[in-house]
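Hi P.,

Sorry for the delay on this. The queue was packed all week, but I finally got your sequence through. Input first:
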Amino acid sequence: MLRLLMRRLGQAALVVAGVVGLTFVVTRLVPGDPAVAYAGPRASEAELAQARERFGLDEAVPVQLWNYVRDLFAGDLGISLRTRQPVLDDLALAFPASLELVGTALFVAIAAGIPLGVLAARYKGKFPDLSVRFSSMLAVSVPVFWLALVLQTVFASNLRWFPVAGEYDAALDTTSPLTVYTNVTVVDALLTGNWPILVSTLHHLVLPALVVAAYPIGLIAQMTRAVLLEEAGQDHTRLERSLGFGETSILVRFSLRPALNPVLSLIALVFAYAIVNGFLVEAVFNWPGLGRYAADAIRSLDTPAVAGVTLLVALLYVLANLLVDLVQGILDPRARTR
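Then the structure:
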């Protein structure tokens, strides 16, 4: 396990280094002058020169890259040109809301996708299998923004079962103000016993979480079904069947655990995808997370903020894959040598 950890950490470091270099290059290629975005279109030449000096834009490109990497190691992602606050502080406020949304969506995806995959494998070629395969294909094919607009129109605007947008009812800030500890509203509401905000947040979470969860549910169900059907042809499955175990028991008790390894790898990929996919969902449902922050940063040519969001998403992807590799090593000793 130690060798596996060291090998994966080395690979993760290379990926992060590549992302840092690519992010630096992309932010320098973006049209527009960050100094103008910071100082304003009516700033004088002296004010623009002062802004360029403050952000190191008057230095040679290799010097800028060195300063950029040095600041990253110091935990400094720069100053947002739009909010005039440290990007790290902005991300600390925006990321918990995205984590709340994506975490809920992935919980729903895992809780629904794996049982659906087991159901499809158990009744291969029959109506439950065909239903799951068609539904999962539809889930991975439908554009996320279109699904968000449809659910918002049907269940929020027409039926009025759920709120149209927002994280919770804004009026509760006056009647039941929330004490913030983690910036994850559901967690803070639970910690402080703020039941009105907890109920309102869960109510607001339903539609955006379902939209973000749709694609992962389809992928997880398809992967679970495929791996379980592959396991059904193994020698141990034939032995278990000859010993009198039922098909459902064989799938759940004996085949599901070895089938979880590729499913876990898929979940790591889906996590990073869900974070990015959530940007569009946040825009439709006005969810106060990374998506709205990134959209505002792009509109205002806020390159430090865009770079900060990019690095955060890349780091989350690397950490998710590292965690999955370690879990696979625990579940299956054979994975430690790969």
